[in-house]
Design a protein that fits this description.
alpha/beta; seven-stranded mixed beta sheet; three-stranded antiparallel beta sheet; 9 helices
């Protein structure tokens, strides 16, 4: 697993830098349309701050959530109440066949080994259960911010021996699901866009709000961040539209 303390450390500004309830609701809409009828329970594995689960609840779904980071769960409880449990995605604190369906959004890259999470979800799903998994967003054509940040994250992960987030795509998730006994396929979500600015991105880098920048010594941080800050400084001032595409891996028990 990714270091739990890292996610506890960023819980206070996690939503602000990742789209908050608006992003969560957009993912919930995509997931809800791919889940069978019924109210659940829907288990969100890696519930984080609860923005996706909140969107599912607003669509009439019964939800429960699990996450290992206590500070993230505290944020989720403020939104969802007592339907959450602290636990390891690789050893889910639920009985065999006890949940109808499950979802995970932006989680698989932070679990080591990821195969353990998929096996656990297969164990706790009821017969005919579906598991919907979203990797992190893909940059859309014309997005000038995402390539700069991606290059920075790659430098950080190369130079920080204590922090490794694997790069995970839909094909990886599908393979892990099949290995755990699911059958599945990949679907593409609607693209989304939002406004940011070079100045905002530079401020977030300087304040180390990105998980990948936490724990770096000063020399390493400068080596990782300076090229990104320099590249952002060349962009126009004022609002910049970012655009992203996302996938959903639809897994069903055999």
């Amino acid at each position: 697993m990714a270091p739990v303390a890292v996610y506890d450390d960023v819980a206070g500004f996690y939503d602000a830098t990742r789209g908050g309830e608006s992003r969560g609701d957009a993912f919930a809409a995509e997931l809800d349309g791919r889940l069978p009828p019924g109210v659940g329970p829907i288990l969100e594995v890696g519930v984080g701050t609860g923005v996706v689960a909140l969107g599912l609840r607003r669509r009439g779904r019964g939800v429960i959530g699990v996450d290992i980071a206590a500070a993230m769960l505290a944020r989720a409880r403020a939104r969802l109440g007592p339907v959450l449990v602290r636990g390891d995605n690789r050893r889910l604190p639920f009985g065999d066949g006890s949940v109808a369906h499950a979802v995970s959004v932006w989680v698989a890259h932070a679990v080591e080994p990821p195969e353990a999470m998929f096996s656990e979800v297969a164990r706790v799903l009821a017969p005919g259960g579906r598991y919907l998994v979203c990797p992190t967003n893909r940059s859309a054509a014309g997005d000038v911010i995402h390539p700069i940040l991606t290059a920075m994250f790659e430098r950080a992960q190369h130079l920080n021996p204590g922090w490794r987030q694997r790069q995970v795509g839909a094909s990886d998730i599908l393979a892990w699901g099949v290995q755990a006994g699911f059958v599945g396929h990949v679907e593409t979500c609607r693209s989304r866009s939002w406004l940011t600015s070079a100045a905002q991105q530079m401020e977030w880098i300087e304040n180390r709000i990105w998980v990948d920048l936490r724990g770096l010594d000063e020399d390493t941080y400068r080596h990782v961040a300076r090229p990104a800050l320099d590249a952002l400084a060349t962009l126009p001032t004022g609002p910049i539209e970012q655009r992203a595409e996302a996938d959903v891996v639809v897994l069903s028990l055999r």
